[in-house]
Write a structure and sequence with these properties.
Blueprint lengths: L1 E14 L10 E23 L13 E5 L2 E3 L1 E6 L9 E8 L13 H13 L7 E7 L3 E8 L2 H9 L10 H12 L5 E8 L10 H9 L4 E7 L13 H16 L4 E3 L7 H13 L2 E5 L10 E8 L4 E4 L3 E3 L3
Helix pairs in contact: 1-2, 1-6, 3-4
Length: about 325
C-alpha cells in the first residue's frame, strides 16, 4: 500500500462586515488542504488465448472487487512507457550458479541472463532506480539501488557463473526487502532455472509474503528449457518443477514468464521481455473497508473484453 497526498482546493465566501455596507460584496479566497489517502496498488498482465501480450487495455475495460465488493479504480497506468511520470524501482536478480555455464556452443545461459537484463535497462528513465543481486550458494548485492545505469552495466558485464548451488528464494527475499523500503512502482527481473537447492528461506514465505502480498511485479526468465542437454535427461521432474516455479513467480505478481529454448529464438525472446515490461499495468484503488485488522483481503479483477486472461496478486493483508 502506498500513501498518496491529495491536494484538495476549497473556496470560502468572505462577507464584508456590516460596518462598511456600501462595499458589501462577496469575495473568494482560496487555500489548499493535504489529505493522506491510502491506495492499494495492483500490477496486472494481460494475454490472449494464445499467450500473446495485450498492450492496449484501458481503465474502463476493468472491473475490480475486494472481497466481492466493487471498488473504484482511482489510478491506471502502464509501467514501462517513457511517457509515464511514474518512477520505477527495478531489481535484476540473476542466477550465477553452476547451471548458468550450460547452453549451446554459441550461447550460455549466463549470456541470456545478461542480454535480457540489458533489454530491461534500456526502458528506464533517468530518475528510475536499479539494483543488481546475484545468487549461487550465497546471495550478493552487487549494486545497491542507484540511478547510475553505467555502474550497473559494468557490473553485469563482469558477471560470470560460479560452481556453487542455487539460493534463489534467499535472493528474491533480499531484493524484495530493499525494494519494499522505498516508494515507486516496482519490477523484479528474475533469471534462473528455478531449481533452488540452497536457500534458507521457505518457498511459501517468499511467494506469499515477499511477493504475493507485496507491490512487486516479477518478470521471470526461466532458463531450464534452453538447449536441453544431457543434464536434464532422465530428470523430467526437475525440468517440470523448475519451469513451474518460474511461471508461478510471474503469475502470483501480475508479471510475465518467458522460456527461451534455442539460440536462434533469442532475438524474438528478448523482444518479448521488452514488451512484457512495457505492457505491465498498474491499477490503484482506495478500499471501501477502512478497518486495519490484519485480515486477508481478496482481490478480483475482470475485463469486459472477451478472450483476455489477466494475472495479478490475489490479495493483501490489511495491516496498520
Amino acid at each position: 500500500m502506498i500513501q498518496r497526498t491529495i491536494i484538495t482546493l476549497f473556496f470560502l465566501a468572505l462577507i464584508l462586515s456590516p460596518q462598511n455596507p456600501s462595499s458589501a460584496q462577496e469575495t473568494q479566497s482560496q487555500y489548499t488542504e493535504s489529505v493522506e489517502v491510502e491506495l492499494i496498488d495492483v500490477y496486472l498482465s494481460a494475454t490472449d488465448s494464445k499467450g500473446k501480450i495485450i498492450d492496449d487495455l484501458k481503465k474502463e475495460d476493468l472491473i475490480l472487487k475486494e472481497d466481492g465488493i466493487p471498488q473504484e479504480i482511482k489510478e491506471f497506468s502502464v509501467l514501462g512507457t517513457r511517457e509515464t511520470d511514474i518512477d520505477l524501482v527495478v531489481a535484476l536478480v540473476i542466477d550465477v550458479s553452476n547451471s548458468m555455464h550450460e547452453g549451446s556452443k554459441e550461447v550460455r545461459k549466463m549470456d541470456i541472463a545478461k542480454a535480457a537484463a540489458r533489454e530491461i535497462m534500456q526502458l528506464l528513465k533517468p530518475q528510475d532506480q536499479l539494483m543488481l543481486v546475484t545468487f549461487d550458494t550465497r546471495v550478493a548485492v552487487i549494486t545497491e539501488l542507484t540511478s547510475d545505469l553505467s555502474k550497473v552495466e559494468s557490473a553485469i558485464t563482469a558477471l560470470q557463473p560460479s560452481y556453487g548451488r542455487t539460493a534463489m528464494w534467499d535472493a528474491i527475499h533480499a531484493a524484495a526487502e530493499t525494494m519494499n523500503a522505498v516508494e515507486g512502482r516496482k519490477v523484479m527481473y528474475v533469471c534462473s532455472d528455478g531449481l533452488d537447492n540452497a536457500s534458507k528461506m521457505k518457498v511459501e514465505e517468499v511467494v506469499s509474503k515477499d511477493l504475493g502480498a507485496s507491490e512487486i511485479a516479477v518478470i521471470s526468465l526461466g532458463t531450464i528449457e534452453f538447449e536441453r542437454g544431457g543434464h536434464y535427461y532422465g530428470q523430467e521432474n526437475d525440468y517440470r518443477d523448475g519451469k513451474q516455479t518460474m511461471q508461478t513467480l510471474a503469475d502470483k505478481t501480475g508479471g510475465y514468464a518467458f522460456f527461451p529454448e534455442k539460440a536462434k529464438d533469442l532475438p524474438q525472446m528478448l523482444q518479448k521481455v521488452r514488451s512484457g515490461v512495457q505492457s505491465l499495468y498498474s491499477v490503484a484503488y482506495e478500499s471501501s473497508n477502512l478497518e486495519k485488522d490484519g485480515s486477508w483481503r481478496k482481490i478480483e479483477i475482470e475485463t469486459k473484453r472477451k478472450g483476455i486472461k489477466l494475472k495479478y496478486r490475489d490479495g493483501y493483508y490489511a495491516t496498520p
